[in-house]
């Protein structure tokens, strides 16, 4: 059982240029999603960021929506919000693992993403974690995205920026190497 021990939170970064965040939320559990969004919006507002919000059917669609936005929209960072509650089948494990893995892969491609997809055993755990006056995991996800935006801008300004991705830098499907399929 997790305790409510104190932990250190970094102060919100300050920005000289405007920051645009996209919140992608799966409102499957509407009350939980609404609390997560409220927390994220509050933190974004405190940092002076503007926010757009889109809804998707479930947690598995959140990374896909973010990937689509990275191709055609002009956002500095992304906040992934949703809730997965353990049920009677292994579907919980699939949704938790695959959504987290996909968000991590997007982050490794250079996108500033805060992961606020709750993975809980029951609704009371979700309520405590989503509550903006409680653990405020939505706000924490927005803060994470903002910190990554600040870090990317700092490194870009100092010339420490990775080059544009080349074809061979793209994460490939299992078994595919340089356009050849393994047998």
From TrEMBL:
<protein>
    <recommendedName>
        <fullName>6,7-dimethyl-8-ribityllumazine synthase</fullName>
        <ecNumber>2.5.1.78</ecNumber>
    </recommendedName>
</protein>
<feature type="active site" description="Proton donor">
    <location>
        <position position="91"/>
    </location>
</feature>
<dbReference type="GO" id="GO:0009231">
    <property type="term" value="P:riboflavin biosynthetic process"/>
</dbReference>
<comment type="similarity">
    <text>Belongs to the DMRL synthase family.</text>
</comment>
<feature type="binding site">
    <location>
        <position position="115"/>
    </location>
    <ligand>
        <name>5-amino-6-(D-ribitylamino)uracil</name>
    </ligand>
</feature>
<feature type="binding site">
    <location>
        <position position="28"/>
    </location>
    <ligand>
        <name>5-amino-6-(D-ribitylamino)uracil</name>
    </ligand>
</feature>
<keyword id="KW-0686">Riboflavin biosynthesis</keyword>
<feature type="binding site">
    <location>
        <begin position="59"/>
        <end position="61"/>
    </location>
    <ligand>
        <name>5-amino-6-(D-ribitylamino)uracil</name>
    </ligand>
</feature>
<dbReference type="InterPro" id="IPR002180">
    <property type="entry name" value="LS/RS"/>
</dbReference>
<comment type="function">
    <text>Catalyzes the formation of 6,7-dimethyl-8-ribityllumazine by condensation of 5-amino-6-(D-ribitylamino)uracil with 3,4-dihydroxy-2-butanone 4-phosphate. This is the penultimate step in the biosynthesis of riboflavin.</text>
</comment>
<dbReference type="GO" id="GO:0005829">
    <property type="term" value="C:cytosol"/>
</dbReference>
<dbReference type="GO" id="GO:0009349">
    <property type="term" value="C:riboflavin synthase complex"/>
</dbReference>
<comment type="pathway">
    <text>Cofactor biosynthesis; riboflavin biosynthesis; riboflavin from 2-hydroxy-3-oxobutyl phosphate and 5-amino-6-(D-ribitylamino)uracil: step 1/2.</text>
</comment>
<dbReference type="InterPro" id="IPR034964">
    <property type="entry name" value="LS"/>
</dbReference>
<feature type="binding site">
    <location>
        <begin position="83"/>
        <end position="85"/>
    </location>
    <ligand>
        <name>5-amino-6-(D-ribitylamino)uracil</name>
    </ligand>
</feature>
<dbReference type="InterPro" id="IPR036467">
    <property type="entry name" value="LS/RS_sf"/>
</dbReference>
<feature type="binding site">
    <location>
        <position position="129"/>
    </location>
    <ligand>
        <name>(2S)-2-hydroxy-3-oxobutyl phosphate</name>
    </ligand>
</feature>
<keyword id="KW-0808">Transferase</keyword>
<dbReference type="GO" id="GO:0000906">
    <property type="term" value="F:6,7-dimethyl-8-ribityllumazine synthase activity"/>
</dbReference>
<dbReference type="Pfam" id="PF00885">
    <property type="entry name" value="DMRL_synthase"/>
</dbReference>
<feature type="binding site">
    <location>
        <begin position="88"/>
        <end position="89"/>
    </location>
    <ligand>
        <name>(2S)-2-hydroxy-3-oxobutyl phosphate</name>
    </ligand>
</feature>
């Amino acid at each position: 059982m997790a305790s409510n021990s104190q932990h250190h939170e970094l102060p919100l970064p300050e920005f000289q240029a405007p920051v645009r965040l996209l919140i992608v939320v799966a409102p499957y559990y509407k009350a939980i999603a609404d609390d997560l969004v409220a927390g994220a919006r509050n933190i974004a507002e405190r940092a002076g960021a503007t926010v757009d919000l889109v809804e998707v059917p479930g947690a598995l669609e959140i990374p896909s929506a973010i990937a689509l936005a990275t191709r055609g929209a002009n956002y500095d960072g992304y906040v992934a919000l949703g809730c997965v509650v353990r049920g009677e089948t292994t579907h919980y494990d699939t949704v938790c693992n695959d959504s987290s893995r996909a968000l991590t892969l997007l982050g490794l491609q250079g996108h500033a993403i805060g992961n606020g997809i709750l993975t809980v055993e029951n609704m009371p755990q979700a309520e405590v974690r989503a509550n903006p006056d409680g653990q405020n995991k939505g706000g924490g996800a927005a803060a994470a995205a903002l910190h990554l935006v600040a870090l990317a801008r700092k490194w870009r300004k100092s010339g420490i920026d990775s080059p544009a991705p080349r074809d061979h830098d793209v994460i490939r499907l299992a078994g595919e190497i340089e356009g050849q399929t393994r047998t």
